[in-house]
Design goal:
Layout: H1 5-29
Length: 30
């Protein structure tokens, strides 16, 4: 994947929300 500084910045700002959602999804699947 090519390095895209602006995408990296967006990813970092969204990461906490994404991590929370991933945990929720895993809990729903179990």
């Amino acid at each position: 994947m090519p390095e895209m500084p602006e995408l990296e910045t967006i990813k970092r700002s969204l990461e906490p929300h994404i991590k929370g959602r991933r945990i929720d999804d895993v809990e729903l699947l179990m």
